[in-house]
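Q: Structure tokens for this one, please.
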Amino acid sequence: MPSTRRQFLHLTVAAGTIPIVTIRPIEATPAMLGTAIRNVVGEAQLRTGKIRLDIPPLVENGNTVPMTVSVASPMTAADYVKSIHVFNEKNPQPNIGNFHLGPWAGRAQVSTRIRLADSQKVVAIARLSDDSFWQVAADVVVTLAACTEEVN
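A: Here is the predicted structure, written as tokens:
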């Protein structure tokens, strides 16, 4: 068995067989979204409320979509947000980001820009210090999907 890539290529070319590898993007499914969420929350109940997702409902370009997630929390040592997780429905990687917070954060809010491959649902989940999970979802219509421009 060859131990390096160079040895592998040398053996395959010498044998007259050149391996052909086709790389395709993974096709996302709603089941992948559910699995990604369950990987974070386990069997815990997802509640609605306490969390807000500010994201434009219509974006012209999916390559840079502004998003802010905030959670109503006093952020004290006894009552704070442990983490915020953001998921999407149709991107090949459904878990967009994980943000870990604590009482030292002062404010339970994160802002970033994300990429969306197509029009889809975006879900934000917050884990509080009492290990409860809160969620919010928003549908986003993307007119120009991310990763679709051709290079000439």
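A few notes: Helices lie at 5-14, 30-41. The radius of gyration is 21 Å.
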